[in-house]
Amino acid sequence: MSLRVRIQKKLPNYCLDVDFNVDDDPLGLLGSSGSGKSLTLRCIAGIDGPDSGMIMLNDRVLYESRRGINLPSRDRRVGFVFQNYALFPHLTVGQNIAYGLKQGGKTERRRRVAQQLDQMQLAGLGDRYPHQLSGGQQQRVALARALAPEPDLLLLDEPFSALDAHLRSALETQLSQTLADYRGLTLFVSHNLEEAYRLCPQLLVLSQGKMMAQGDKQGIFDAPGNLTVAQLTGCKNYSRLEPLATHKIRALDWNCTLETEELVSPLQTHVGIRAHHIAFLDSLEGSNRFPAWIAGSSETPHRQTLYLKLGTPPETPQDYHLRAEVFKEKWNRLKSRPFPWSVGLLPSRLLLLKNR
Prior knowledge:
By secondary structure, this protein is α+β, with helices and mostly antiparallel strands. The chain has helices at about 35-45, 95-100, 105-120, 135-145, 165-180, 195-200, 215-220, 225-230, 330-335; strands at about 5-10, 15-20, 25-30, 50-55, 60-65, 70, 80, 155, 185-190, 200-205, 210-215, 235-245, 250, 255-260, 270-275, 280, 290-300, 305-310, 320-325, 340-345, 350-355. The strands form four sheets. Strands 7-8-9-3-10-11 form a six-stranded mixed sheet, with helices on both faces. Strands 2-1-4-5-6 form a five-stranded antiparallel sheet, covered by helices on one side. A hairpin with a 2-residue loop joins strand 4 and strand 5 (about 60-65). The longest helix is centred in the middle third of the chain and has 17 residues, at about 165-180. The model has no long low-confidence stretch (mean pLDDT about 95).
């Protein structure tokens, strides 16, 4: 199984220009709104047309501008789950699922529909209409409709974005189980890093139609390479840097000097560190350790975000250098410590970044 995509499409604000392969593992397309993620899926599905390039699925050419090949959507063997479900309101659940089943007789189509109803935990709902279902049930119908024809490729365009947190979690678990049994290829679009990270071993990061990074998810997370990829993969702390030596920099926006594990390059313009990689230590002895004070904090049910000022006490709640994230258990141990705290920006955790 393989998908080869190399397409270009001119848009008013940028040009979509992507070139990538998908083999076995689900590939997550990650990027901010308007980065070209959904457009890439629509071009692969045949809903939108590129200006030039080629799309090949399992040695079948779906699109090639040079030879004038552009298969219609119905012949591409591609399943598509839309962000807004796109169910047919005048058809029942069963009829929606059966919509893409063009091959086989009535008995085979009924078998496929029943199979999908059972697998998607929709048994007994086949005669209902979309408006009689919850959002989570509608999304499961959309997934069942996409999978029923047994496509070679499944395209998922932010399938959980319209759901509340509880339903997102439940459906993500079900989708993960479904993909484990699915024999085809999968492309998953999201702007949510954690969602894409959990579901996709491979990531492709897009910004303004351009590929910024592609590869193993942990590799991209550990070494994003440039500021855009670092931001899109959740890095909340970054500063302009001034090179001082082969393994030493000045973090201009954090007002501190740092030793680095990575060799400093003249092309690198910024240093970053992820919020959960900031260390809270018992002493100030050692490299990259600084006195720090809390300018403010905020909480979620499980984590505490701490806004830290290095070097001197903060004058206002907005006077801080870094955002650190800790679990509540650690926060309960930290909060009684007298200031200043010892904060470590460990050399192995620093990200040296190019501007683009």
